[in-house]
Amino acid sequence: MRWWRVVGLLSGTSMDGIDVAATEMALDGDAIELRPLGDDTLDYPAGLREQLLAALPPGRIDAETACRLDTRVGQAFADAARLGVALAGGEADFVASLGQTLYHWVEGDRALGTLQIGQPAWIAEATGLPVVADLRARDVAAAGHGAPLAGVLDALWLGGSRFQGKSGTPEASGVQVAVNIGGIANIAVVGGPEPLAYDTGPGNALIDLAAQRRAGRAQDTGGALAASGTPDAELLAILLDEPYYALPAPKSTGKEHFNADHLDRALAELGRPIGDGDLLATLTELTARTVADACRAEGADRVVVSGGGVHNPVLLAALRRQLDVPVLVSDDLGMPADSKEALLAALLGFLTWHGLPGNTPGTTGATGPRVLGSITPGRTALRLPEPVTHPPRRLIVRSAATH
Hints:
By secondary structure, the protein is an alpha/beta fold. It has helices at 48-55, 63-87, 120-127, 137-141, 150-158, 205-215, 224-227, 233-240, 260-270, 276-297, 313-322, 340-353, 361-364, and strands at residues 4-11, 18-28, 31-42, 94-107, 110-117, 131-133, 176-181, 184-190, 196-202, 302-306, 327-329, 374-376, 394-397.
């Protein structure tokens, strides 16, 4: 059994920096064993985050700006990869990058395209390592949404755990819903009648936008602004009257939909001023409500939360208040909440490296399983292992102290 050292990278829809995770992974029969080695977040260089946010709809950019952003993000990811190699003890076998999503093209119930920037050649040049990147486009080409790809991790990780659900019968395993609250919130259903994952709507996207506008803060740290106000029932009703929430899965969305224009339309319909605290409290309640509605619709017996949203106690309390089932943070089950998505990038790269599909068609809507991404060689000739013929069925997360 060979252990591979992998560095996973991504920047989420909040665009607040690059998440880095170093890990060792090995195939052992029907299981992938994963041992985290370390994680960190590298902030974008001064001004780059603002340029990225300005490039999102309703903003417009030209080809020159797109090229410059792709290069600068690629160079930032190269710095993050070097950090990841250091976290891995100075040696790694390859890097896996989910990049920075700049645009996700969805019309109706179909994803027609997706664009992640952060040119992997910069990572390969900086580290000398092969880079697995562009991990969403193949799923979109196969009629999938290219998101959320976390369903493959959650199915492998939570699928092996059993607990008594609402049925009360010991032999029946309950339905678990894994929730990730980043800029956009998404869920993956494990133990239901079929694999299922989708974006529920805004996670921190509208909260961050309002915090920046009203208080000059990149985010509502610790939920302090929301805690100072009370949800406005009228504005909440306007925000909930959004057609996306009623669309059937699979579905995906992004900041090209839940953006400044979306919030401004809701505030215009409200037609009266609203205080800073009340606005933040309302947007926090919106995220909790839409996530909770999705969890209830999927028959959740247990909810496991990860992503930046776990650090907002007001949001987490609202989610727990609206659900009558246990709501855990993924750390409670051994999966680091802060680095879960970077570990997802590493896992997707590991699957591609071994010739294994990285999508779960039931979760993205793709017509079938696909090996995802493209590989940029490092300094030496590319040498891949023999393709694995039997897909793994479990993901076992080991502590950093054990193999």
